[in-house]
Amino acid sequence: MGGCCPPMDLFRSEPMQLVQLIIPIESAHLTVSYLGDVGLLQFKDLNSEKSPFQRTYATQIKRTGELARKLRFFKEQMSKAGFSPKKSTTQADVNVDDLEVKLGELEAELIEMNANGEKLLRSYNELVEYKLVLQKAGEFFHSAQTSAIEQQREYESRQVGEASLDTPLLLEQELSADQSKQVKLGFLTGVVPREKSMAFERILFRATRGNIFLKQAVLEDPVNDPISGEKVEKNVFVVFYSGERAKTKILKICEAFGANRYSYPEDISKQVQMITEVSGRLSELKTTIDAGLLHRGNLLQTIGDHFEQWNILVRKEKSVYHTLDMLSLDVTKKCLVAEGWSPVFATKQIQDALDRAAFDSNSQVGAIFQVLHTTELPPTYFRTNKFTSSFQEIVDAYGVAKYQEANPTVYTIVTFPFLFAVMFGDWGHGICLLLATLYFLVREKHFSSQKLGDIMEMTFGGRYVILLMSLFSIYTGLIYNEFFSVPFALFGQSAYACRDLSCRGATTDGLIKVRPTYPFGLDPVWHGTRSELPFLNSLKMKMSIILGVTQMNLGILLSFFNAMYFRNSLNVWFQFIPQMIFLNSLFGYLSILIIVKWCTGSQADLYHIMIYMFLSPTDELGENQLFPGQKTLQLVLLLLALVAVPWMLLPKPFLLKKQYQERHQGQSYTLIESTEESLQVESNHDSHGHEEFEFSEVLVHQLIHTIEFVLGAVSNTASYLRLWALSLAHSELSSVFYEKVLVLAWGYNNIIILIVGIIVFIFATVGVLLVMETLSAFLHALRLHWVEFQNKFYEGDGYKFLPFSFTLVGDEDE
């Protein structure tokens, strides 16, 4: 505002302006491309009433979409082949037309190679199966032939010798039967999946009524199925049948079960010849397939070398045409009109980009840049770096700041990790968190370039938040004097010592102060005493109230800065002042009483003082009096708190009504002061003209705000007691794990029990205290900022500045 102080870029969002660009159509593409490199202009859609197909550049978008599809196809093929695209930061030196031709040729070549490769592989797999069928069926026929020869010999030998009693009676009749009357059997050979072999056999038997003979042989190793290309366990089968009808049935069943059939020659000499031929063809096919894969690999390698460049180029082209579609075509159809938001500081960069585009495209006329005046609310833009961006995201998750309102992030950078540390105070645990964060910081470049999982990405994104959280935890841990719940006399000796030998560590009785007060943090002598818990409870509870009241006062103070910045005197007089009076009359006063009690060492009961301040304010305080004139001060504060409520509620609606009547008297429309309500009326003027001032609505709105603040002052202060509760829980859990696991295991004097105890202690500390407790304290600190702090001043109803930028296009996945 003034020139006395250095500018705070993060405290208020960047001043924005609505600009209009009139761009000649011949330089439009290059202009938008250069503006994408600048990345500081958010285009407005001037064709929102048109469907995507009715827009000017629909054909070009379809064309770039097709190029993107081809690149996705290449990426799939590369990932299947085990190639990864080569990382590249250089710009592709081809234009889109050449790239379209090149990608078309490469796609056609790759599709043809894939089709040929699939055919060859199918033939190869079929030949492998055929070879196995020839081998297995050959073994079966060979064993059957051997068996038949043996039977013939046996029969002949029996004809020469005498017939024994074991000789079958019909054997002679069978063997000497008329050759002309014998039935001619046909057979089929092939392979069937092993899981279907039993069902295959059963169906064959039923379909032919048992008039078949089936022989199966198991293939030891799985084979590649010619159709699916997957490894499948299969059996070779030979089925004998009689008659054409049986053959037809068997063929249909084979087809239904996915059994591949292969012809088998009956002649033995032909069998040997077939095996030789198949082996020769297999070796030829193998050589051809290997050569094809090598060629395909070289092609994919070439594509991989340029893939990133092409991908970035196509994405940029697509985003440029999408942006051009948001521009409106002038009546003359010779230029495009663009409107958009840009930060004021970016004016020079945008104008330079326009001039460069006009020069590079040899345009006769340059683009025209002009600033438009509008009552429309601009987008919110904060210039953040990698340190502040994570804190800004914490605030934005609640709501994006309204244009130029005070940004809570400035204070959140300190208050968020501090409130977390109040609940997580242990410098041992803080060091563990710090080491984990330092690992992320050391390997920052490595993690930034990798695709991380959801949880890992979230943790890495908040690495600087966790860094500050760990540093503040070490600080509060030193104040609480806790290192995995163990106290250390780091800053000197304890101020207390035993009066005599009967003094024990289990009680503070018998301790006398012999030295100056312990210089920093909690005196280690308190640890393990009977009065440790009551003392720490009292300390942390009162500290929580003081921290809470301080942060809420900061929130109300920021509402004053907002009101002053937007020149809204109503909010200063009838919101800021009564809110400060009400909060500090009650809880500001309580905080002062706590500090006075700490300084004086008084035994006054603060609960009694606060309760009877409301119930019987005129009664004497007696032993609860902390300072002279306390009773009078309490009466004044109570009266001020009671006056502050109607002060907040009543004047503002009446004054707003008066302002409205003055503004619209005689239909003279003048620029008005920017109050919340007037801004709403003003923003609606564009579409609805001047709306009526609804007094009842404004009164109800103010009533809700007043009740919310009055009740919130009590509930929000109580809400800060979570700082005490979580700090106590963390300390007690840490103490339990240390005493009941580590110390207990140490007491057994057994190395195995000690090792088990240490392992259990490490897992309990990491799992419960460093993961669950960290998350719990993080969420509670988040709630204190979002609800208790930000509701005092932060509207958070703005919208983010989303400029057209190629850096964002390059990062996002398709």
From TrEMBL:
Coiled-coil ranges from the UniProt annotation: 89-116
Domain of life: Eukaryota
Membrane topology: Multi-pass membrane protein
Membrane-crossing segments per the record: 418-442, 463-480, 543-565, 632-650, 751-772
Pfam families assigned to the protein according to its UniProt record, in alphabetical order: V_ATPase_I
Assigned keywords, A-Z: Coiled coil, Hydrogen ion transport, Ion transport, Membrane, Transmembrane, Transmembrane helix, Transport
Main location: membrane
Entry's localization field: Membrane
GO cellular component: vacuolar proton-transporting V-type ATPase, V0 domain
GO molecular function, one term: ATPase binding
Entry's Gene Ontology BP terms: vacuolar acidification
Keyword Coiled coil included in the entry's annotation: yes
Similarity field: Belongs to the V-ATPase 116 kDa subunit family.
PANTHER family in the record: V-TYPE PROTON ATPASE SUBUNIT A3, VACUOLAR PROTON ATPASES
Role noted for this protein: Essential component of the vacuolar proton pump (V-ATPase), a multimeric enzyme that catalyzes the translocation of protons across the membranes. Required for assembly and activity of the V-ATPase.
Protein name: V-type proton ATPase subunit a
